[in-house]
Amino acid sequence: MQHYLNYIDGQWLNADRQITVMNPGTGEPYATIAQAGIEDADQAMAAARRCVNSGALSDVRPAQRTTWMLKAAEAIRAIADEGALVACRENGKSLNDA
Asked: How far is CA 21 from CA 51, 64, 65, in A?
């Protein structure tokens, strides 16, 4: 069974609690997700605030931002099939029915 972690401040982190994701079509669990708590959210917001305050992104030229966005889009496309299967399981449908 796949276990999904939280991505906080450049690291994949587990949590004290988890959520079990069920396939409504079969009634079977197929994944677990690290359930972020208040402390995790505080840590993520602090990391975001540090990034904003550092000004690291304000000096990045639009061409570089475009390059980053295109790389992000490429990474998303690379896992699109996996995402489609997850969406199907969440809704209890086969890939053909979806």
From this structure: 32, 38, 35
